[in-house]
Q: What sequence folds into this?
């Protein structure tokens, strides 16, 4: 028996969520008294994969070829399923990222396993009972799910489980999987990176702005604040609908769900549909000129005032603080 963990990389570098999911899988393996094994797909150096040993991974399976250098949902799902079978995994763990969201249901179907998407904490294992908490109803509730299947697939939300470096080393093994043309009915030919900025779902700090900014020309100060803080930028839905910002920045019920350590909301009213995507942020700071704005009800810190006065002062103060 083992726990198999799918590890993601970007351009050959392990993603931040890779260390979180490794720690998460290792903690499950410890509860089950078994081994945590990782699978990595695509071009990545052995030295980079070795870093996973410090996060409790004992062995990393690695598979790469030219067709696998970009993410292909079907093929990746077949490979992870084959690895789970080879390693006799009772639990497969993924990060609930864009690719994890596509992979988890496919793998669960292939393995005829139970599936929990968007876990928020480690499961409680006691004898045959395997219980896990997950976010539900757009983060408005936490559901407790009891697995009733011998095989389990779990995806964990990025930023919800801290990575723990406990030392240790991992062996790296080449892996081959029986994938064929059926696994490549769609093929990603090329990926053109639109931005080098911090990825929104994984960002530890998010600077987000809404219709209160009046127009796209006023985002210069939002981007500047984000840059000073090393943050990702986000926006409310009407802002992306109006074309002020790209849809990839839209957070909320119909957009991306984020749970950063710090979420700064500027000129956003705090409608329920917006809060659905941001309420699991660890600390929320709201800047709004309306003291009755609903966002203040969920804020840890609130500043009532005009964003056009406050944000430049904040940037100035942060720059002075950083020297
Ligand atoms: P507004 O509601 O117009 O609020 C602007 C805020 O800026 C106000 O609070 C105002 O006081 C403040 N402000 C104005 N000027 C200043 C200033 N100078 N300084 C400081 N503050 C200022 N919305 C999302 O964001 N994400 C979603 O995923 C989403 N999904 C939806 C799904 C459905 C089915 C529906 C019906 C709606 C959805 N919405 C979503 C829309 C949502 O209901 C709100 O309309 C939207 O979030 C409001 O965006 P806003 O706060 O930017 O704009």
A:
């Amino acid at each position: 028996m083992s726990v198999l963990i799918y590890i993601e990389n970007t351009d050959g570098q392990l993603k931040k969520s890779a260390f979180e999911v490794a720690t998460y899988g290792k903690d499950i393996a410890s509860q089950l008294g078994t081994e945590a094994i990782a699978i990595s797909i695509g071009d990545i150096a052995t030295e980079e994969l070795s870093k996973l040993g410090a996060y409790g991974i004992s062995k990393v399976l690695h598979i790469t070829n030219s067709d696998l250098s970009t993410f292909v949902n079907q093929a990746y799902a077949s490979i992870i399923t084959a690895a789970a079978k080879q390693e006799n995994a009772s639990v497969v763990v993924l990060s609930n990222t864009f690719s994890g969201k596509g992979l988890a249901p496919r793998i669960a179907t292939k393995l005829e396993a139970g599936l929990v998407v968007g876990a928020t904490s480690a499961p409680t294992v006691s004898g045959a009972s395997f219980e896990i908490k997950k976010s539900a109803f757009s983060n408005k509730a936490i559901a407790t799910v009891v697995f009733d299947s011998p095989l389990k697939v779990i995806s964990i939300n990025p930023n919800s489980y801290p990575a723990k470096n406990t030392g240790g080393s991992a062996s790296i093994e080449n892996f081959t999987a029986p994938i064929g043309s059926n696994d490549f009915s769609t093929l990603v030919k090329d990926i053109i990176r639109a931005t080098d900025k911090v990825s929104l779902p994984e960002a530890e700090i998010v600077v987000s702005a809404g219709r209160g900014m009046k127009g796209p020309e006023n985002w210069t100060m939002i981007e500047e604040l984000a840059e000073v803080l090393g943050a990702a930028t986000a926006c409310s839905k009407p802002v992306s609908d109006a074309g002020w910002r790209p849809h990839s920045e839209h957070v909320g019920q119909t957009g991306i769900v984020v749970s950063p350590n710090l979420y700064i909301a500027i000129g956003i009213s705090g409608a329920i549909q917006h809060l659905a995507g941001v309420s699991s942020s660890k600390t929320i700071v709201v800047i709004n000129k309306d003291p009755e704005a609903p966002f203040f009800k969920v804020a840890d810190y609130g500043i009532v005032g005009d964003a056009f006065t406050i944000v430049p002062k904040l940037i100035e103060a942060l720059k002075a603080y950083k020297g």
User: Anything to note?
Assistant: The radius of gyration is 21 Å. The CA atoms of residues 12 and 154 lie 24 Å apart. The chain has eight helices and 17 strands.
